[in-house]
Amino acid sequence: MILLLLLTLQFGSSPTPAELADMAAELFLNGQYAQASEIWNELRSRMPHRSRIAYNLAASRFMMDSLAAADSSLSLVSGDVEDDTLACAEALTDLALAIQMNDYSGVENTVSVLMENISDGVSPECERIGLEAGLNWLHNHEPPEDQQDQDQQDQDQQDQNEDQQDQNEDQQDRNEDQQDQNEDQQDQNEDQQGQNEDQQDQNEEQPRPPPQIDEMTPEQAQAILDLIEENLQPEDSTGTAKTGRPSGPVW
Questions:
Q1: What pLDDT score was predicted for residue 208?
Q2: Are residues 86 and 66 in the same domain?
Q3: Residue 103: helix, strand or coil by DSSP?
Q4: Among 55, 112, 124, 246, whose CB has the most other CB atoms within 10 angstroms?
Q5: Which residues contact residue 131 at a Cβ distance below 8 angstroms, ignoring those fewer than 6 apart?
Q6: 137 lies in a domain?
Q7: Do the beta carbons of residue 73 and residue 62 sit within 8 Å?
Q8: Domain presence at residue 28
Q9: Into how many domains does the chain fold?
């Protein structure tokens, strides 16, 4: 308030918002961040919808190491501030807060965000500076034991997942090999069935051999000879065979 009164006396009347903005920018460039923050805060109360004023207020508070207040001011920024500029400011504020609180996990997360932001090759210089600062801080600090344990658990879980994936791929390969073997066996069965059908056709086309007569016994041969001799006996005048049985009519 004292600064605003001095400015009023300097300008002879209440300064316009443009005059206040010029004065705050000059104070900021001269390293007088507290005085600049006071003016930006006054301008924000007059024009709460101007995102650029909130952004400049956050920048002044950031330089004063009032990181929580800077983060709160950034939450009011939207509209007339470029997305890249806002993203850079938010990332750097989060990084500074994490470093101030000695939050190893928070620094890691912010470094990951910065690395993603600069992956397109068109990020602002402030992001590259912030990334370098974050990496240096991580290099010079050990993660807490509970985080080390969690990191080890995550690594073990990742290794288990990779092993399981390898096992699944091996099982899939074995299943494919078994399927190939089954298909080969099926082809062999079909070939064998075709050969059996061809053999059956050949057997049906070949003539059957005449039936073989079994060798007769002497008794059977004598019986046939007796039958032939009996039929050759001359008939008498009555048409009766020698045996006395009718031989049938004489033609």
A1: 65
A2: no
A3: coil
A4: 55
A5: 111, 114, 115, 118
A6: yes
A7: no
A8: yes
A9: 2
**Rounded Cα gap, residues 94 and 28, in angstroms:** 21
- pLDDT tens for 168-214 read 888 888 888 888 888 888 888 888 887 888 787 777 776 666 656 56
Of 123 and 114, the structure prediction assigns the larger pLDDT to 114
Nearest C-alpha neighbor of 54 from the set 97, 100, 26, 89: 89
Domain carrying residue 131: 82-143
Q: How far apart are CA 93 and CA 32, in angstroms?
A: 19
Q: What is the mean pLDDT of the chain?
A: 79
Residue 195 to residue 197: CA distance in whole angstroms: 5
Dist CA 17 CA 24 (whole Å): 10
Residues 1 and 67 in one domain: yes
Q: Is residue 63 located within the same domain as residue 93?
A: no
Same domain for 70 and 99, yes or no, is no
Question: Which of 132, 90, 140 is CA-nearest to residue 111?
Answer: 132
Angle between helices 33-46 and 51-63 (to 10 degrees): 160
The angle, 0 to 180 degrees and rounded to 10, between the axes of the packed helices 17-29 and 33-46 is: 160
As given in the structure block, the two tokens for residue 82 are 């470029």
The verdict on residue 201 lying in a domain is no
